TrEMBL record, chain A:
GO terms for biological process: endoplasmic reticulum to Golgi vesicle-mediated transport. Gene3D superfamilies: 3.30.450.70. Its main location: endoplasmic reticulum. Belongs to the TRAPP small subunits family. TRAPPC4 subfamily. One of its GO terms (cellular component) is Golgi apparatus. It is found in: Endoplasmic reticulum; Golgi apparatus, cis-Golgi network; Golgi apparatus. This is Trafficking protein particle complex subunit. Part of the multisubunit transport protein particle (TRAPP) complex.
Automatic annotation (TrEMBL), chain B:
This is Trafficking protein particle complex subunit. Belongs to the TRAPP small subunits family. BET5 subfamily. Residues 27-56 are annotated as: Disordered. It is found in: Endoplasmic reticulum; Golgi apparatus, cis-Golgi network.
């Protein structure tokens, strides 16, 4: 873990978890995290899905909905005032950035603790996902992602940055 | 900064001390009318109304289960010497500190707070050890929180929080 202190722009891995809690994509870019079996990864994805839901429940102060949505006559926005689950998890060796799309798919990015600009990176990955996975006519939603262009796009993007 | 709550869990998974700074109404979320449409509930896979009727002890159990699983997940991914520090959602941040004896200190604050682990360590070392462990009248274990919430500890905690975590 400590040999790479000089280049701290390391992205370890990307997980994509479907809205049902199944792991549909898992890609390691850099060694550094423990080697686990694919079964373990599936289990981790499932339990993360559950923990994400619990963190929503624990919210001590609910977000106040913006005034425009509470005004009578306007259609209430279903997304504005719901508490979000885990967004960032920090540990001493790595950091997990979690991005949930409006449809409930979760993107988990494992990086070094000091990695900057994860938000833009996440946005770019979501873009790649939308372009190469969702627009792929042969891809069935909620199923494991096997799209070569997506793989290559990620490779190019992550390697160029680090 | 906003401090929401603080919990101590012993190694038997029991919550031996808890303290909240949130008003009751905000904690149950009953006052704020939140828009719910039937399609929005199913689209994300969870209902938004499950929160009502949850007691404080349910909260404690949920938090314990959560930090326990997160800790295990972190250790599985990062190796044995990796420790879980904190997580942040859009609304709050949870800070975590575990002593070598597996006591867990958990604090919920607003999202802008930096890592509070050093402070949680200080609470353990300067307050818990001083006023609870060294108290000859307190039992070694604290079933149901007996012996933890004594006057010295409460006052020390209050003073510590106002001193190091200015509002």
């Amino acid at each position: 873990m400590y040999g790479r202190a000089k280049d701290n722009k390391v992205v370890f891995a990307l997980f994509i978890i479907s809205k049902a809690g199944g792991l549909i994509y898992n890609r390691e870019f850099h060694t550094g995290m423990s080697k686990l079996t694919s079964n373990d990864y599936l289990m981790l994805a499932g339990s993360f899905h559950g923990m994400h839901a619990i963190t929503k429940q624990l919210c001590p102060a609910f977000p106040v909905p913006p005034p425009s949505t509470t005004a009578a006559g306007l259609a209430p926005s279903p997304f504005s005032s719901r508490p979000s689950g885990i967004e960032v998890l920090e540990s001493s060796h790595f950091r997990i950035q979690c991005f949930q799309t409006l449809t409930g798919t979760k993107f988990l990015l494992f990086t070094e603790p000091q990695q900057p600009n994860i938000d833009t990176m996440m946005r770019k990955i979501y873009e790649l996902y939308a372009d190469f996975v969702m627009k792929n006519p042969f891809y069935t939603v909620e199923m494991p992602i096997r799209c070569e262009k997506f793989d290559r796009g990620l490779d190019g993007f992550v390697k160029v940055r680090s | 900064m906003v401090l929401y709550s603080f919990y101590i869990f012993d190694r038997h998974t029991e919550c031996i001390y808890s303290r909240r700074w949130t008003p009751q109404a905000a904690a149950t979320g009953g006052k704020i009318p939140r828009p719910v449409s039937s399609s929005s509930v199913t689209s994300n896979g969870e209902a938004t109304t499950g929160r009502k009727g949850m007691s404080h002890s349910d909260d404690e159990k949920l938090i314990f289960g959560l930090v326990f699983s997160l800790r295990n997940m972190v250790q599985k991914l990062g190796g044995e010497d990796d420790t879980f520090l904190s997580y942040r959602t859009g609304e709050y941040k949870l800070h975590y500190y575990e002593t070598p004896t597996r006591m867990k200190f958990v604090m919920l604050t607003d999202t802008k707070q930096n890592n509070l682990r050093p402070y949680l360590h200080q609470i353990w070392a300067n307050l818990y050890v001083e006023y609870v462990v060294k108290n000859p009248l307190a039992p070694t274990e604290h079933p149901g929180g007996i012996g933890v919430a004594n006057e010295m500890f409460e006052r020390g905690l209050e003073a510590f929080i106002t001193a190091v975590l200015p509002v």
